Amino acid sequence: MDVQLYWYIALISSGVLGVVVLLNIFGFDIDEVDVDIGIGDAFSLNSLIAFTCVGSWTGFLANKMTAFPPWLVLLISIVAGLSAYVGSILILRKLKGWESKGNINLENAIGSVGVVYLSIPGHKKGKGQIQIEIQGRLVTENAMTQGNKLVTGTKILVYDVEKNTLLVEAYNET
Q1: Which three-class secondary structure state does DSSP give residue 16?
Q2: pLDDT tens, 110-168?
Q3: Per-residue CA distances from 41 to 6, 21, 38, 70, 93 (Å)
Q4: Which of 1, 3, 134, 174 falls between 20 and 30 A from 96, CA-CA?
Q5: 10 Å Cβ neighbour count for 62?
Q6: 136-162: buried (b, 16+ CB within 10 Å) or exposed (e) per residue?
Q7: SS in 3 state form for 39-102?
Q8: Where are the domains of the chain?
Q9: 56 CB contacts (<8 Å, ≥6 apart)?
């Protein structure tokens, strides 16, 4: 391959990489664009960009700085690009495992103990609020009780969910 071809590919792929980084900084994840070609995580636009960027820069530099024959420069650039491709897939897969959407499933609160934050009227006559840990986060949620009024600071136990409202009762630690 000609050194100019490596140079053009390197410039274009670096420009695209720069745009992708800026988009990611401002909250747009280019890999959220679904491209289902039947190979799952093996295809990632970010990884493809990493392949072309690293492979082309490696080919350009190997061409300029060594006396290797063109076939060896091409082989080195392909190996470097594939390494970047596989490495970026592994890194992105690991990062996606850490991703949190922030959605709370109220069903996960059943059986949990919390504290009344705003008094809860008795006999399901109104809603109050409780603070409780759900999915590792301390949250304030609406709650009702079938029993007597629960005042601020009372420990409660969540036993059900009804229309996005937690049903609670006073918690006895015995």
Answers
A1: helix
A2: 999 999 999 999 999 999 999 999 988 899 999 999 999 999 999 999 999 999 999 99
A3: 27, 20, 9, 32, 8
A4: 134
A5: 20
A6: eeeeebebbbeeeebeeebebbbeebe
A7: CHHHCCHHHHHHHHHHHHHHHHHHHHHCCCCHHHHHHHHHHHHHHHHHHHHHHHHHHHHHCCCC
A8: 3-98, 106-170
A9: 6, 7, 9, 10, 13, 77, 81
Q: Which residue, chain included where needed, has tokens 């959605």?
A: 103
Distance CA 2, CA 123 (A): 81
What's the distance, Cα to Cα, between the start and end of the chain in Å?
Answer: 78
- Residue 63 has which token pair? 């061409």
Query: Among residues 39, 53, 43, 71, which one has the least CA distance to residue 7?
Result: 53
DSSP, res 146: S
CATH superfamily of 106-170: Nucleic acid-binding proteins (2.40.50.140)
Question: In this structure, are residues 50 and 21 in contact, taking their beta carbons and an 8 Å threshold?
Answer: no
Where do we find the tokens 């590792």? 136
Residues whose CB is less than 8 angstroms from the CB of residue 152 and which lie 6 or more positions away in sequence, other chains included: 116, 117, 118, 119
The label of the residue with tokens 């934050």 reads 117
Distance CA 53, CA 115 (A): 54
- pTM here is 0.52
